Amino acid sequence: MPIGMAKRHMVLRLVCATFVAIGFYGNPLVAQLVPEPVMTRFTYAVVSGNDTSWQYVVRTPAHFQSDVVLGSQGAALQIAAATDHAGLVRRLELTVFRFPSGHPEAKWTSAQRAIYELGPDSVFGTVQAARGQQNQRYPAPAGSVIFQWSYVALLEQIVVRARELGVSMAEIPVYFFGTSGYVLPAKVRFQAGSDSVAVSLGQSEFTLVLDKFRRIQSGSARGQEIRHVAPRNVFPADSNITRELRCPDAELRPDLARIRDDPAVRQILDLYPGAGRVDKFRALRNETDLPVCKELLDMFPPQGLPPQLVDLGQVYLMVVGPTGQRAAVGLVSHDLSVAHFTLTSR
User: Fold this and answer.
1) What is the pLDDT of residues 72-107, one digit of tens each?
2) Beta carbons within 10 angstroms of residue 29's beta carbon
3) Exposed, middle or buried: residue 187 (CB in 10 Å: 0-12, 13-18, 19+)?
4) Helix H or strand E encompassing 155
5) 42 within 8 A of 54, measured Cβ to Cβ
6) 44 with 55: CB under 8 angstroms?
């Protein structure tokens, strides 16, 4: 199954791109700046009456991927998108799988694949299914966000686009992929001094609560509820991804305190109260921490020297390797949902 490999390739591109300045997030109405994570991995239960879909969203500054399982419909979707600095989806790839309704544990078959690309005044689509390939081109206003109902990652992208516009209220055209050019205006309203945002689309209004990294924490609309749950994959695991990954040498580096106190690292640690106490340093070991090591090494594939993996309390620290006299450092929340990357300043 190519699902895991697609995710792996996205992560590899992420790591190759992280040796750049770290950006910042900020609600247009909130002055405080928060360092932007290089990756977030959230899982959501989207509840509509007696029906629940499971959605796993991996987001980086320039990409996002979402795995969606619609058990009662016998369908699963993988969405992979490339975004730009304006918060627009430049390219969206969609793969649809089918399985017997109500039995996602059964064998999946690939049913359809589509690619959509945003042009200056149109959206171009290529749809491949059992009946062959169809090429599409439908008009779309400039600045449209490629969208479809019921997917948390796409709803969140509307909020990202509004934030990049730098206003407290925005009206954004959204293009519904899979239609013959259907476009609706999305009205986005940030609430001053709050972590809430409202998104109105047609007759529906979503009330969303964002976390400190501006990711959806929860939300509701008429007849629908978005719940943030413990992060986990919702697609079957690809055993080829992490089977060879193990915890590296368990000896603590002598310069960990210096790395911990580096201003660039300290700025991120301050987001996690209680993290970084020297007496809490603990090297990760295969005997007790193998699943965590595999997750960390999958996020940040080693580039050269073996990394050092340490539990700092609240945060895992990964010293990826020296870059000249500077160390490359990954920091990941204990629930493995938020990852940061920085270079020490010395």
Assistant:
1) 999 999 999 999 999 999 999 999 999 999 888 888
2) 12
3) middle
4) helix 152-165
5) no
6) yes
